[in-house]
Amino acid sequence: MKKFFVLLLILISTNLISSDVTTKEKTQIQWVDGLYTKSITDEFIISSKDFSKSTKTGDAMMIPLGSGDFSGDGIPEFVYGFLYVDLKKGSFIKPIFLTISPEKGLSLFKPIMDVVPYVSNPRDTVIADFNGDGINDIFIADTGVDFDPFPGYQNSLILSAPNGKFINATSNLPQISGFSHGATSGDIDSDGDIDLFVTNAGTNREPPHYFLRNNGKGVFTQVKVGELLDKRYSYLSHTQDLKKKKNLYYKPGLEFIDDDDKLDLILLSGKLEGGDSKIIFGSNSGFRKKEAIKLKSGRFGDKTAAYNYLVTDIDDDGDNDIIILHVTFNFNVDFSHVGSDIQVLIQEKNRKFVDKSNFYFPGITFDYGSFGFSMNLIDINNDNKKDLTIFGPHGINDAIKQIINGEIKQTPPKVFIRQEDGSFRPLNNDLLIGDDKYTFGGIRPLDIDNDGDIEFVVHNEMEEREFSVQIVELTTNKDEALHQSNKPTEIIEPTEIIASALFDGRYSFDISRYNEKDGSKTLGNGYIKIQNGIMTVESENRTLLNGTVDLYDTFEGKIDKKGNINSSLKISALFGDSADLENVNLLGNIDDLLKGPWDDYFDITVKLEKKGASAIPRAHEDFSSEEIDFLMTAKGDDEKCIRDQFFSGLDLLRKDTIFHVRYTSGEVIRVLREIVKDCSN
Fold first, then answer.
1. What is the torsion angle, in degrees rounded to the nearest 10, for the CA atoms of residue 536, residue 541, residue 544 and residue 550?
2. Helix H segments across 514-618?
3. Residue 457 CA: distances (Å) to CA of 41, 61, 319
4. Cα torsion angle, 548, 550, 554, 556, sign
5. Of 20, 129, 191, 445, whose Cβ has the fewest other Cβ atoms within 10 Å?
6. Which among 368, 324, 270 is positioned nearest to 659, based on CA atoms?
7. Which H or E run contains 678?
8. Are 21 and 463 within 8 A, CB to CB?
9. Nearest to 9 by CA among 525, 633, 573, 658
């Protein structure tokens, strides 16, 4: 027992279990201006209780479910869903269909509102012409109650009818109570109509993921399992053991991706759910294992879940590439899925993809903040380059999801402007929303009035169970802006200095990360050689906890005759993988700390010691010597208390955080601190 705790404490002190989970606020990026909110041109107030079948209400969430032209006037209608997220018996609320006209502005689209059924938990939609009459119809994928035992719910179908009417055609679907989490469409049998594919994400093996074949009139029959999709990809295996969990897909897609004329199937998942996203390329026999490839996880690595995608030729080389929107899990935020990483996979050769995320979206890996459901690519600032917006249920500035250890962090971006070099830069959020909270949910960029300019359709949370939908007019003219920016639009570069040999010699150093609230944590140590005023890190006797020691080879520095130092180093303050690396400018004086921002939360500091001095890393920063002594020397009831609470603590941790593959040192430290508190009293 004692040997085990000695080893455990050594692992914690050297971070070999894993790096502490601390939020990555990747803002070493260039925030841009150039697009502004000009005015709110229309607003429509919606109260969920007005459309609810149940007399019970709860914590309401408004979910954007897409847009499409149902009226035939060339202007899209907007679809929203509601649910009460805390009602364990479920919500039964009609989806909301809004239309807009120059005379009335926003209003309910009565032809569908009169027939649309009550739904439980609408998760996804497909808006397309299913019955071949030239008018859009809508399929609504419904998960049902999102509480154990996850009973599922019947999906819904609304079809257009003559004379501008619509009918509830749910009876045209197989009657299945599934936990339908995603849907997509395509002509899977080349008969000229639009078929469907539905994924399920409940706790049951049945129903499987399935295809629905359309007869051309909007009547769908379920395709036999294994006929089109390989059986090994059809059944969900739901378990808390990530090694055994498989085939949980957030979003499917039917797209033409490679260079043939057959539809390909995209299945988005993530290591958080025990699987990988994949593409199964279409063949004459359907979608088979031999035609499947796994996609890289993105910059969140093992803590990622892919929510949605876009297929586009982003590098203009004639073939299709893929943009994937990822979310993650953050133990410092009281929500399961948060944040955003935008991954770009370039198809350099047929079916061969290379990750170019760091070029196209540098630094966009926020592990907190409201998540997005999907993305849009559209030119929103009239420069003939397609920009990108993230579309989700929550407002841009959602302070609840930005509270990290009691501090409200900077709002992650939701709008990205494409630059001349092809990369994207985040638009300053305050140009859109100013100081408002919970606004600009579900950003949909559309040309509402066909004048060639893009408007944003957004929704805002007003009061309990009450929301507003707004039409936002944009402008590229700063003088017309409703809000002004307080964020810097460019990174300040360090001042050049003239190297001097006055301080030539050998110096030991400690390198640390620092935050005023968290304090300092040593990351490594070694020796710096100064020759003719040029600074390099020696290759021997150097350590680095968060990454390989080879990163010290990226260090460059100069010192002038006054001891002022201008240097830089590529380093991670957190996990040590390639996605965390940032080039940090370290400035200061030889008699003081060298310091530079790694992100908006952490600074990197370097302390130089006198020539020849040894550099000894600090250990056991998380426990006092008395606490370590207690853990290492406890006997009898104390030892039993430590043993029992340690394993029960990890078991509770496992149940609370089912997305785990391994425990981080921060989590284990929290367990041990509780043990010291409870067992030493």
1. 50
2. none
3. 10, 17, 31
4. positive
5. 191
6. 270
7. helix 665-679
8. no
9. 633
DSSP state of 648: H
E-only strand ranges, 439-518: 441-446, 455-463, 466-475, 505-515
Kindly list the averaged pLDDT for each block of 10 residues, start to end, along the chain of length 681.
45 38 47 90 90 80 91 92 80 92 89 95 94 97 84 94 96 92 94 94 76 97 94 74 67 94 93 83 93 92 90 95 92 75 95 95 88 92 95 76 66 92 91 80 88 90 82 92 61 63 89 82 90 92 86 92 90 74 89 87 87 40 66 78 68 41 53 73 64
Neighbours of 587 (CB within 10 A): 18
Q: Which two tokens stand for residue 343?
A: 């991954």
Instruction: Give CA separation, 324 vs 29, 96, 300, 310, 363, in Å.
Output: 20, 28, 12, 7, 15
* Cα(583)–Cα(573) distance, integer angstroms: 11
Q: Is 506 exposed, middle or buried (0-12, 13-18, 19+ CB in 10 A)?
A: middle
Q: Which residues pair with 214 in a beta bridge?
A: 220
Q: Which two tokens stand for residue 475?
A: 């402008």
Instruction: Give CA–CA dist 455/381, Å, rounded.
Output: 10
Of the chain, the end-to-end C-alpha distance in Å amounts to 20
For residue 551, how far is the Cα from the chain centroid? 28
Query: Residue 460: which of 58, 64, 95 has the closest Cα?
Result: 64
SS3 content of the chain, % helix, strand, coil (to 5): 15, 40, 45
What is the CA angle 237-243-246, rounded to 5?
30
Judging by beta carbons within 10 Å of its beta carbon (0-12, 13-18, 19+), is residue 432 exposed, middle or buried? buried
**Are 194 and 205 contacting, i.e. CB atoms less than 8 angstroms apart?**
no
* Residue that the structure tokens 């790694």 belong to: 598
Q: How far is CA 381 from CA 427, 479, 654, in A?
A: 11, 15, 47
**Whole-model pTM above 0.90?**
no
